[in-house]
Design a protein that fits this description.
The chain is α/β, with parallel strands linked by helices. It contains 8 helices and 11 strands. The N terminus is likely disordered.
């Protein structure tokens, strides 16, 4: 998570995983609002896919991007699809508050990872789901800082305050004690879908596809093709 403090010459960062070398254009290509057709048969709302880091620090999806997408959607129900290593803490805080105030129904689906700052902004969604093979990581903010001893003590104080804000966000969502999340964050905890569900951070684990389900889909497709062939012969 990144917090910039130019007066103290410090940058509070969240640990990032994966490749951060994508261009701004590529980030916007995967972090966009995708509107579905406005027809009677397809009124599911819209999707916002956030498959990148958060914030300009990482050339990623920003709070400004989220604001633009939600403004354009104008209260439609929306689904967030998330696969993000995290990023700037204040972008994530702003996203949380935008989603909290959004008039439409918000569903967040964690398709891959929701780490660091990307783990707490979805807490504002009305419903949170996680893929059965997804992962959530929560941790304390950490710092790369330059300054004298007094300035660095001030940075540590800010870090502790930020950690408290984040742990209180998890606690508010789950209804559990804030200290429980403070302990998990201090240990930098990776949560499986079942663990996140047990902590009250998500509402549903999306099941993995089994052989029987895959076979049923194939059989259904074969049946539909057969019906089309019969209809064509009759024509």
């Amino acid at each position: 998570m990144t917090i910039r403090d130019t007066t103290k010459r410090a940058a509070i960062l969240g640990r990032q995983f994966g490749n951060m070398g994508m261009s701004a254009g590529a980030a916007m290509a995967v972090a966009r609002a995708e509107h579905r057709p406005d027809t009677a048969s397809d009124i599911d709302g819209a999707e916002i896919r956030i498959y990148t880091a958060l914030g300009d620090d990482w050339f990623g999806f920003t709070s400004e991007d989220m604001n633009a997408a939600l403004t354009e959607l104008d209260g439609q129900d929306v689904t967030l699809r998330i696969n993000s290593p995290g990023g700037n803490v204040w972008d994530a805080v702003a996203m949380y508050n935008m989603l909290n105030d959004y008039p439409g129904n918000v569903t967040a689906i964690i398709d891959g990872e929701a780490s660091s700052a990307a783990s707490f902004f979805p807490m504002a969604a009305d419903r949170i789901e996680m893929a059965g093979n997804g992962m959530m990581m929560i941790h304390n903010a950490w710092v790369l800082a330059v300054g004298n001893s007094s300035e660095l003590r001030d940075v540590a104080t800010v870090l502790e305050k930020v950690d408290g804000l984040i742990s209180s966000t998890y606690a508010a969502r789950s209804g559990r004690d804030q200290e429980e999340f403070a302990t998990l964050m201090a240990a930098e905890t990776f949560l499986t879908p079942d663990e996140a569900l047990g902590l009250g951070l998500i509402d549903h684990v999306r099941p993995l596809k089994g052989k029987s389900e895959a076979a049923a889909r194939i059989n259904h497709a074969d049946s539909e093709l057969a019906k089309m062939a019969v209809a064509a012969m009759r024509f």
